[in-house]
Amino acid sequence: MDWSIALILTQDGVVNAAIYALLALALVLVFAVTRIIFIPQGEYVSYGALTLAMLELGKTPATVWLLVAGGAAALALEAFAHFRGRSVPWREALFWYAALPLITLLLTYALEWQTAPQWARMLLTIALIAAMGPITYRIFYQPIAEAPVLVLLIVSVAVHLALVGLGLLLFGAEGYRTEPLWDERFSVGPLLIPGQAFWVIGASLALIALLAWFFSRTLYGKALRATAVNRNGARLMGISPNLAGRLTLLLSAAIGAISGVLVSPITTLYYDSGFLIGLKGFVAAIIGGLASYPIAALGALIVGLIEAFGSFWASAYKEVIVFTLIIPVLFWRSLTTHHVEEE
Amino acid sequence: MNDTILSVENLHVRYGKVEALHGVSIAVPAGAIVTVIGPNGAGKTTLLSAIMGLLPSQGTIHFAGETITVPDVEYLVQRGMALVPEKRELFGEMSVEDNLILGAFQRYRKGDRSISETLDEVYQLFPRLKERRTQMAATLSGGERQMLAVGRALMGKPKLLMLDEPSLGLAPLIIREIFRTIARLREQGVSILLVEQNARAALQVADIGYVLETGEVTLAGPAERLANNPQVIETYLGMSKRQEKLAAVSA
Q: In the predicted model, what is the mean pLDDT of chain A?
C-alpha cells in the first residue's frame, strides 16, 4: 500500500462514515427517548433510496400506498382506543395518519416526477418516508411503550423483518442507483473526488448542526431531551410519551430517508441493503454507549475507516471485521461504566 | 371560596389485590390550602398519584367544573393541574432555566407565548433560581431542588398545585421558607393540596385538613380545629410538643 491508496481508502471511509454517523445519531436518539433499540432504522435508508429510484424511472413508488395503508391502520387503532374510553388526540392523529399520507399520495400522482428536478424528487422522497415514522410508532410501539427493553427489541426485530419482506414485494429484487446531485469530479492529488461525496459530507454535517440546534434551542427539542432524562418528570409537565415517541420516530425516519437519497448515487442499493448500513450505524452508536452523540459520531468515523481499509486488505471479511469491533468495545465499556439494573 | 376546584368522591385505588385507598372523599375549595396529613403508608402519595392519573382508580373526580372519568396526565396538566412529586422528578442533566421552561410545555403547545413573563415571576418568587439559571439541576442542593420543582410546576400557571411532602429531607430553615412560599401562593389565587408528614407546619399554613390513615379519611375539618383535636395532638403533634418541652428544660 502506498499513500495514494491510503488516501483513496480514507476518502471512501469518510464518505461512508458521514452516513453511519447520521444513522448512529438517530439510533441514540430513539433509544434515549423511547428505550427502543431501533433495528428497522436501515429499512428507511433502502426505502428512501428505492423510492427515489422509482420516481426517477417515472414509476409510482409503492411506498406511498404503504404509507396510506399504515395511516389507515393507525387511525383504526385510534378509533378503537376512543371507543374504549381513552382520550385520543384527534387533531394530531388526523394530521399524521390521514392528512399527511393523503397529501403525499396526491402529490405523487398529480405531478410529473420523471421530468422534475432531482432535488424536488428528493424532497418528496424524504417527506414520504419521514411520514412513516409516526405511523410505525403508533402501530407497533405505542401499545407496548411501557414494556421492558428486551420486549421492545424483539418487536423491533419483527418490524425489521416485516419491512424487509415488504421491501421485496414493493420494489422487487433488483438493485438501483440514482442520479447524483452533482456530476462533476474533482482531482485532488491522487484522488478523484466525485461531487456527490461533497454532498454526502456537507449534508450530514448540516443535518447534525440542525439537530444540535433543535435539541438545544427549541422547546420541542428540549421536551425530547427531558423525556430521555426523566420520563416521569416529563409526563408531569404534560409531555406525553406518545408525543415524544411520534416525534422521535419522525426524526429517525427523516434521517434514514436523507441517508438513503444521499448514498444511492454512490452505491447500488437493494431492498435489503439498508439493514447492513443501519447495523454499521448501530456499531457506531454502541461505541457511544447508546448515550453519547459525539462519541457515536466519532465511532462512525472509526467504523467507516476500518471498513474501507478492511475491504482493501481482506475484502471478503470486511463486514466481519467491522462487526467484530463490537466485542472489544463492549469489553472496554463493561470495564469503564458501572452497571445499573433496569427497574 | 364557594367554588370547589377539586372534589374527589369515593376514590378506590388498588395495587393488584391489595386495596390502598378505600373510598376517600376530599374537596379543595378554590383559593384555599388543603392539607392531607397522616402516617407513612397511609396512602397519601397514592391519593395524589390517582388524582393526577398516574395510577388507575375508581371513583368520581370533578376538576375545575368538569367531571374527569378517566384521569389522563397530559389532559389534566393542560386543564391546570400540577403535581410536585415527592421525588421532585427534575431533569437533572438540563439547566435550571430549561427545567423551568419545560414546565410551560403545555401552555406553549396551546399557543401561549407569554412564557418569559411567567419565568420572571418565578424568578421573583425564588431569586436563588435566577442566580443558578445556567447550572445543571442535578448540582442543586436539596432546598434549591424543591424550589425548582415548585417553580417548574408554577410555570404551567396551574389552578391547582398538589405538593407531595415538600418538606421531606430539608433543613428547618428551608422548610420555613418553603411554607412561607406556599402561603404566598395562596395570596396569588393558586389552590393548593398539600400532603405532609410534618403535620404541625402543614396545619399551620392550611385552611382545611384531612387525616388519612390506612387508606381512609378518619378526621376532617378546619385546620385550626384539627390542630386542637386531642387525637391529632396525641398522634401527630404531641411528640414534637414533648420535644419542645425537653428542649426548653435543657435550655
A: 92
pLDDT less than 70: residues of chain A: 338-343
Can you state the percent helix, strand and coil of chain B, rounding each to 5?
45, 25, 30
Alpha-helix residue ranges (DSSP H) falling in chain A: 3-34, 41-56, 63-83, 90-94, 100-110, 118-130, 132-136, 149-171, 195-217, 219-229, 231-236, 241-263, 273-287, 293-313, 318-324, 326-336
Q: For A60-116, give the DSSP string.
A: PPTHHHHHHHHHHHHHHHHHHHHHTT----HHHHHIIIIIHHHHHHHHHHHS--TTS
- Most B CBs within 10 Å: which of A142, A236, A247, A292, as the mutation test of the B interface? A236
pLDDT in tens, A85-141: 777 889 999 999 999 999 999 999 999 998 999 999 999 999 999 999 999 999 999
Q: Which amino acid is at B125?
A: L
Q: Contact at 8 Å (CB) between A58 and A113?
A: yes
Of A85, A219, A238, the CB nearest to B74: A238
**How many other C-beta atoms lie within 10 A of the C-beta of residue A205?**
13
pLDDT at A260: 96
Place of cell 461505541: A287
In this predicted model, which residue has the larger pLDDT, B84 or A191?
B84
The chain A residues in contact with chain B (CB within 8 A) are 85-87, 219, 222-223, 225-226, 229-230, 232-240, 243
Residue B1 banded pLDDT, cuts 50, 70, 90: very low
- Of the residues A91, A237, A292, the best mutation for testing chain B's interface (the one with the most B CB atoms within 10 Å of its CB) is A237
Name the 3-class secondary structure at B245: helix
Tell me which residue in B77, B83, B101 faces A222 most closely, judged by beta carbons: B101
Question: pTM of the full predicted structure?
Answer: 0.89
Q: Which three cell numbers stand for residue A121?
A: 424528487
With contact defined as beta carbons under 8 Å apart, do B231 and B219 qualify? yes
Task: Give the list of residues 6+ apart from residue A221 with CB closer than 8 angstroms, or none.
Answer: A213, A214, A215
Cell output for A271: 431492498
Length in residues, chain A? 343
The rounded distance, in Å, linking the Cα atoms of A241 and A251 is 15
What is the identity of the amino acid at B30? A
Residue B171 · residue B178 · CB < 8 Å:
no
- Residue B22 Cα distances to A87, A319, B10, B195, B215, angstroms: 26, 61, 8, 18, 6
N- to C-terminal Cα distance for chain B? Answer: 44
Task: Specify whether the CB–CB gap between A18 and A255 falls below 8 A.
Answer: no
Spatial CA neighbour of B207 closest among B31, B81, B60, B70: B31
Cβ of A236 and B73 within 8 Å? yes
Q: Could you tell me the CA-to-CA distances from A267 to A15, A165, A182, A273, A322 in Å, in that order?
A: 12, 21, 15, 10, 19
Residue B11 to residues B39, B57, B132: CA-CA distances in angstroms? 19, 7, 41
